[in-house]
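Internal QA ticket QA-208
Title: Verify multi-chain structure generation after dependency bump
Assignee: T.L.

Test input:
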Amino acid sequence: MTVDLLLFYVLAITAVGSALLIVSIKNLVRSLFLFFVTLFAIAGLYVFALADFIAVTQVIVYVGGVLVLMLFAFMLSNRTLLGDIQLGAKGIFALPKWQAVIIAIAFLALLIAVVSQIAHHEPDWITQAKNRQTFILPQDNTIHHLGIHLMTRYVLPFEVVSVFLMMALMGAAHLARKEEQSS
Amino acid sequence: MIGLFHLLTVSAFLFAVGIYAVLAKKNAILMLIGIEFMINAGVLNLVAFGRYDRAFYGGQTFALFAIVLAAAAVAVALAIILNVYKHYKSIDPDDVTDLRD
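Actual output:
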């Protein structure tokens, strides 16, 4: 087992383990701060998939923006949350919400089945890319190519996303405003 | 080099955890975190497959767009959660019984 595979699995276990801890822990504040750990570990996984710019964006957008927003929302609505204890069903099924556990495990089994099929017979375009050596190498300058493609080939989705962001900004401000002038 | 199979397996686990959070949690913020898990699993898949697209970088570009859209969705969803809290004094989705005032 090589070093990078070992590091990859350390990051993967950190991500999945802290995600499981988030959904099983009772205290919302602790789970919100554990979300930091998960997001950093997922950013590390992006680096292992040779997407370093995506990893940096993940850290900036999620850790810098989304998580602070969630902490704000938590602090503005924490009157009932601190006493929030979710008791599981007692009896045969000691798990809280065992139906949700069953659905999640079934979906996991489905996804793993599909993934192992992909591992056994690869899609054609991946085989072609491997034969022609046209996959991204660790020494490639991905940010350079990403910037060029964002401004040439993908400029229409880029503009659509910018308009969408403005709409979301206006919508969020409209939803969160104080209701005074109209009922 | 990390193979495609490892990345896809990790993202499958993250997606399952996200589904559990959305289905089982009695708290709107934790449900939102579950949705974020599922989006992150999807972005991980995009990035993993995008490694074999050196000509156009489609996977990485659309991973960027997906992150931006997720951030916008979080902003709107948190505004809705705050409104619901102002109205119902609770963010348990089971307490929200009707859409109008």
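Spot checks passed. Chain A has one domain: 3-94+136-176.
Status: verified.
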